[in-house]
Amino acid sequence: MKHDLLAALRPLLTAEASAEAHATGTEPADLEQAVWLRLLERLATDGPPFDPQGWLRRAVRAESRRTRRTSRREQPYGTDPAEDSERGPEHLVLTAARHRALRDAVHRLPGRCPRLLQALLSPQDLTYREIAGELGISQGSLGPERSRCLGCLRRLLAQEVATREVRG
Question: Is the pLDDT of residue 80 over 70?
Fold first, then answer.
């Protein structure tokens, strides 16, 4: 019974929604969907309407008026919210997790590497001369030492990434 009613009303709803959608500035499919939802809600609570075609025409017009009223009240954003220059909480959490993983990996490096990389990443923006003085090594050996430490860090992080991947 319900399936027959829906099949019988489909062409009428398509025609009515197409005719009304232009005036509201909406897509006919959106209008159809809203009326189908109203009809299904009605069928679940009160059963089928006495005059299905008349009910459908009235429902399309009512939904069209509701859409028109809503669109008049809606105000567009000045900018797209997705283009916000501020970072969302998800971004902040992921960035903090990456920084934490990097700090943990740096602490596990051998020898002077943890101190050297911490000095290089310091917010004080130390010069090579200051870093060499702090670590007690010559300024000339700082570059090669830094290269070895970064190589160790790369290998350590590559192993961690490889072990975390799901295999199967």
Answer: no
pLDDT at residue 92 in the model: 85
**Triad 143, 144, 145: Cα angle to 5°:** 90
- Per-residue pLDDT, averaged over 7-27, amounts to 87
- The confidence score (pLDDT) of residue 60 equals 92
Distance CA 155, CA 159 (A): 6
pLDDT at 25: 78
Q: Structure tokens of 26? A: 């909406």
pTM: 0.45
Angstrom distance (rounded) from CA 106 to CA 150: 9
The pair phi, psi for residue 147, each rounded to 5°, is: -60, -45
DSSP the chain: -HHHHHHHHHHHHHHHHHHHHHHHTS-HHHHHHHHHHHHHHHHHHT-S-SSHHHHHHHHHHHHHHHHHHHHHH----SS-GGG-SSPPHHHHHHHHHHHHHHHHHHHTS-TTHHHHHHHHT-TT---HHHHHHHHTS-HHHHHHHHHHHHHHHHHHHHHHHHHHS---
